[in-house]
UniProtKB/TrEMBL annotation:
Residues 254-306 form the FP protein C-terminal domain. Keywords: Coiled coil. The keyword Coiled coil applies. InterPro entries: FP_C, Transposase_22. Transmembrane segments: none annotated. It comes from Frankliniella fusca. It holds the Pfam family Baculo_FP_2nd. Residues 86-148 form a coiled coil. This is Lamin-like protein.
Length: 307
């Protein structure tokens, strides 16, 4: 008689053993929890071990219908929706991450461009500052040259006087008129003291042409200008004409100096400066005869500074 090993305790079965007729087909002895009295009474041909007894019998189960399967799938889909939503969220998060990475790259690129632009701007500002310095130096040089040209032009007239207010006549003799003026201002007249004498057109049609007199020396010219204040002269006194306009003897100024002198008078007279005059390529101003604070004006900037 063959010996069988117990499938539960792995020992020989010395007595009539039990054989599970279910799916496992294993041999069991008393250790399987079987009482001998139960074994003797039971039907050996239909005995099952405890493990197989707990396994449900598929033959007893009903077949699943299509409706039950559909409901099961619907239920399963409902339960899987959160998982699907999580997957969708994950995909969205991944897309957002890609967008953030792209934007981060763009931002870094923008920062680099801004940095480059800032460097370029600083370089340009440096160049602009250099150009400003050069322009200021050139402006100062131009102003210096203009001042020198102005002085040279005026220096060429330093022996001249300009006489305005003299009535014009086709038959006039300027030497006779100058002699009459000399008598009025107590000056010794000598025709040899004069190099050139002629009229120049006036800017205003209603005014007679002015007379430009160039003396041989500056000292003679200065003597005439110094004595002009001794008497008020009218045209009829020295020309024999009918006009009684006042005759003025002044330094022969360039247009630039004339404009500057006019601007100085317009600015200074209303604020109390009684005397504003031109002498030796400069404009001078003071408030009264006793005023020792004499202002010297050489440019429009000097006028603008006066308050």
């Amino acid at each position: 008689m063959p010996q069988y090993m117990c499938s539960n305790c792995d020992t020989e079965l010395p007595f009539d053993h039990a054989l599970c007729i279910s799916g496992c087909r294993l041999h069991f002895g008393p250790c399987s929890g079987i009482q001998e009295s139960s074994w003797r009474k039971g039907d050996k041909s239909s005995w099952k071990c405890l493990s197989c007894r707990k396994t449900p019998n598929l033959k007893d189960q009903k077949p699943v219908t299509a409706e039950e399967l559909r409901e099961f799938m619907l239920t399963l889909n409902e339960k899987l929706k959160p998982i699907q939503q999580i997957e969708t969220i994950n995909e969205t998060v991944q897309e957002l991450q890609k967008s953030m990475d792209f934007m981060s790259g763009q931002y870094d690129s923008l920062l680099l461009k801004v940095h480059d632009m800032e460097v370029e701007r600083r370089e340009q500002n440096g160049k602009i500052q250099e150009l400003k310095t050069i322009m200021e130096e050139k402006d100062n040089s131009i102003k210096t040259l203009q001042a020198r040209v102005r002085e040279c032009e005026q220096y060429a007239r330093n022996r001249n006087i300009e006489i305005s207010g003299l009535e014009f006549s086709e038959s006039e003799n300027l030497h006779d008129i100058m002699n009459n003026i000399a008598q009025k201002i107590n000056v010794q007249y000598c025709s040899e003291d004069i190099d050139i004498m002629h009229r120049v057109p006036s800017r205003r049609k209603e005014e007679p042409p002015k007379v430009i007199v160039q003396f041989t020396t500056r000292s003679v010219r200065n003597h005439w200008l110094k004595n002009k204040k001794y008497d008020t002269i009218t045209s009829d006194m020295v020309t024999g004409g009918r006009a009684n306009t006042t005759v003025y003897l002044n330094s022969h100024l360039t247009q630039e100096w004339k404009h500057l002198l006019w601007a100085a008078k317009q600015k200074l007279r209303p604020i109390g400066y009684k005397f504003v005059w031109f002498s030796e390529s400069k404009i001078y101003a003071k408030k009264n005869e006793k005023d020792r604070n004499v202002i010297i004006i050489s440019s429009q900037e000097d006028i603008d500074k006066i308050e």
